[in-house]
Amino acid sequence: VFGKQGLYLMQRDTAEASGFAFRAEDDYPKYSKLQSLYGPMVYISTRSEYDRLKAAHNDKKAFDKVILGITRDAERARNFMRSYYRRVEMANRLFTSYKEGWKTDRGMIYIIFGLPEEVYMSDNREVWKYDNDQHKLSFSFIRSGTLFDPDNFVLIRDKKYQRIWYETVDLWRNARF
Question: Which tens digit of pLDDT belongs to each residue from 15-35?
């Protein structure tokens, strides 16, 4: 049992360049506290929606009002919350390192686009391919390791993703994914 929440790094010796890092949290990887829910909404909310979600703190009615404003329907809001936070939890399980999995580039792409149909991996590169009814595209990630996360991969950003990103976010916002 750890006395404080946060990131821990265990090493045999502090002079070593390797170790084992892990997080100790009470509301993680599946978020259940209201104050934990607003963060992952950054991918699908406008700046003002995000600010209102953040300001809601422990006010469930205020939080729900913003979500209803995004989805415009109570049933869609329930479906959205269930589906979106299921992906957030999986991103946390799959990609967490020194930061929560949803904050990583692979976590972001997983949350919005889901599990890729194919993944190609090499020492320093990972390519996710989507070829389904909604998308036909691929995302490339480059290894950018650190002591806390030797397997960190960073998305190679390209303007060509912009249109499909906004179209997919719109599907999320309307709970029609």
Answer: 776 776 666 777 788 998 988
pLDDT in tens, 99-152: 899 999 999 999 999 999 999 999 899 999 999 887 889 999 999 988 778 889
Q: How would you classify the pairing of strands 20-24 and 153-155?
A: unpaired
3-state secondary structure the chain: CCCCCEEEEECCCCCCCCCEEEEECCCCCCCCCHHHHCHHHHHCCCHHHHHHHHHCCCCHHHHHHHHHHHHCCHHHHHHHHHHHHHHHHHHHHHHCCCCCHHHCHHHHHHHHHCCCCEEEECCCEEEEEEECCCCEEEEEEEECCCCCCCCCEEECCCHHHHHHHHHHHHHHHCCCC
Q: Using CA atoms, how far apart are residues 112 and 168, in angstroms rounded to an integer?
A: 7
pLDDT at res. 16: 75
∠ CA 127-132-134, nearest 5°, is 105
Beta carbons of 9 and 147 less than 8 angstroms apart:
yes
Closest residue by Cα to residue 42 from 33, 54, 55, 28: 54
